[in-house]
Amino acid sequence: MPEEKKVTWRCKVCGYTFEGPEELPDDFTCPLCGVGKEEFEKVEE
What we know:
By secondary structure, the chain is mostly beta strands.
């Protein structure tokens, strides 16, 4: 069974980072500042 690839995401507003799926859900919001997924960027390793 292939392992799901984890991606590091960073909030461009407050700097919050977390590991999550390749694509963020449409209803995702930052737990710290409340912005939507459009304000997140993938962190390239």
